[in-house]
Amino acid sequence: MDFSSLNWLAIVVAGVSAFVVGGIWYGPFFGKRWQALVGLSDEDIRAKGHPAVIMGSALVLTLVQATALALVIPAGSGIGSALGSGALIGLLFVATAFGVNYLFSRNALGLWGIDAGYNVAQFALMGAIIGAFG
């Protein structure tokens, strides 16, 4: 793998953008439903874990995802192609892996929909951004 040819600005913009979309996705869009499905009350969220550690770790992991995506999307592929590649990776790799885990852990289909949907959206967004910088 050639990390020297990666566009690090594109990776940072893609990762931060996906992180922001996650805040919206798990906030106003699906936050309360997600909380109910995972069994977390507002009090649990305030009391369990350090918010800065959770958010900082989530941002770092999202940047790792953006880096991995930049490694597999061909340079110069363009926005549309890269968006499609990202969406397919989100759907065919990430969402299906979640699906297998959620089946065995007996998680609700709605939780899979929220989590898988976010991953498809974030990988499509990151792909589009990486493609735009291409």
TrEMBL record:
Pfam families reported in the protein's UniProt record: DUF1761
Keywords attached to this entry: Membrane, Transmembrane, Transmembrane helix
Domain of life: Bacteria
Transmembrane segments: 6-31, 52-73, 79-104, 116-133
InterPro entries: DUF1761
Transmembrane listed as a keyword: yes
Name used for this protein in its record: DUF1761 domain-containing protein
